[in-house]
Write the structure tokens for this entry.
Amino acid sequence: MVVYPARIAVYDDAAAAPRVLVIDPQGVRPYLEEITQTVTKLSHEQGGGIPFMVIREIVENYIHACFVSPTISILDGGNTIRFSDQGPGIEAKERALEYGTTSATEEMKRYIRGVGSGLPYAQQYMVDKGGSLDLEDNLTQGTVVTISTRASSKEQIKAHGKQPLSEADLSDRGRLVLAYIAEHGSAGPTDLQNAYGKSLPTWSRELSSLVAEGILEKNGRRYLLPQTGCAVPR
């Protein structure tokens, strides 16, 4: 029996507080199913297209957090979904994204497959569709998993003839990112933190923003300039 409610925040109006829906504690399997179905329904109502199967894999990962304070945020018209918890966290984040790596106990396997396929599958699907999956620490403890299809908006920008950002439109961090990639060829949040300080989530957000604008592309866990000849701010 789960003891923590799950909270789902829907950011459907940038000028207002989010709508919050609460999934009450219940048995493990019905709890996971209700969260998955509700998040899928709400994100699709907002215009998003992240499929049920991907959302389910992330939701089922809450079992590793002992279901401590699960919170789901639906953003960007349903195109970005952020799953957070206050469980024990994931120390080896890169390994958690490798197939076959799992910490599932026999008790957990009563409710999930427990073969180390969930997060790797979700990440591979998102990357194949031009999106991303980012795995980060929560503020004090726990984990934040963000899945986003915002990268696909690059094609919409091209289709509508939107001009690339000028240097004046870039943030200071954005300029640092482009300078680093121009010198090193690619970058990740850890590279930028080592080079310029600030937190990993700060650089992850900056990189995701540049991908959404069509300035960068994501290849696996690396960010690089597009290979298609897209204009880049100079």
The domain at 6-148 is CATH 3.30.565.60 (Heat Shock Protein 90).
